[in-house]
């Protein structure tokens, strides 16, 4: 079965394709089908994922999978949260987002820099699916004082995973895919995908 991925984010697409590789579904990024990104006007990760999935499904006529995810930092009241990708203004600019995050946390002790990555995946069988499959994953950690590692994307270099003793950017891709917020959400979604044939 063909499944459209409702995202234009190259990092997310790579991770999602890897996580979906063993499902037997043909995974097609929305951009290759001429689907443009939709404005994320929701007030929660779930709402934004639903908006993206519905837009991709309606435009293509295919089942759609959307991911809305972000970094929630406790000392910043949950920011950057929904605005993680555009925290510094430009969509997906980690070179600007990370320095802004670190500046906003300046002077805050390591113990108080707790944070989590959140991922919500929404699967729609068709654009008017009244019963979307929703799967959520969270990955607990804290924000480092400076970037470490060169892997991953987004905030990975400043997100320290206590369970692994290193930043997300220092993890091997297969380990990150298994344990990350996105990996956890995808594990919960696999059973639903299996029922779709």
Oligomeric description of these chains: single chain
The helix tally amounts to 5
Helical residue percent band: 25-40%
Low-confidence stretches: none
Determine the structural class based on helices, strands and strand pairing: alpha/beta
Give average pLDDT, whole number. 92
What would your notes on this structure say?
It contains five helices and seven strands. The chain is α/β, with parallel strands linked by helices. It has a seven-stranded mixed beta sheet with strand order 2-1-3-4-5-6-7.
Would you kindly provide a brief summary of this structure?
With 197 residues, the chain is α/β, with parallel strands linked by helices. The protein is built from five helices and seven strands. The model has no long low-confidence stretch (mean pLDDT 92).
Secondary-structure blueprint of this entry?
Layout: E1 2-5, H1 10-20, E2 26-29, H2 45-60, E3 64-73, H3 94-104, E4 114-124, E5 133-143, E6 159-161, E7 166-167, H4 173-179, H5 181-194
Parallel strand pairs: 1-2, 1-3
Antiparallel strand pairs: 3-4, 4-5, 5-6, 6-7
Helix pairs in contact: 1-5, 4-5
Task: Quickly list its features.
Maf protein, 23% strand, globular, 197 residues, seven-stranded mixed β-sheet
């Amino acid at each position: 079965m063909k499944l459209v991925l409702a995202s234009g984010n190259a990092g997310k697409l790579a991770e999602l394709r890897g996580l979906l590789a063993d499902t037997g579904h043909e995974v097609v990024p929305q951009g290759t089908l001429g689907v443009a990104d939709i404005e994320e006007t929701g007030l929660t990760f779930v709402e934004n994922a639903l908006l993206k999935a519905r837009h991709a499904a309606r435009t293509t006529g295919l089942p759609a999978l959307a991911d809305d995810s972000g970094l929630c930092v406790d000392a910043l009241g949950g920011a950057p949260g929904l605005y993680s990708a555009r925290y510094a203004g430009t969509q997906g600019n980690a070179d600007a987002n990370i320095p802004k995050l670190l500046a906003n946390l300046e002077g805050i002790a390591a113990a108080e820099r707790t944070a989590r990555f959140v991922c919500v995946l929404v699967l729609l069988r068709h654009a008017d699916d009244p019963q979307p499959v929703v799967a959520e994953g969270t990955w607990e950690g804290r924000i480092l004082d400076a970037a470490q590692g060169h892997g991953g994307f987004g905030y990975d270099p400043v997100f320290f995973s206590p369970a692994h003793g290193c930043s997300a950017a220092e993890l091997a891709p297969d380990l990150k895919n298994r344990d990350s917020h996105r990996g956890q959400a995808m594990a919960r979604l696999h059973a639903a995908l299996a029922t779709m044939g």
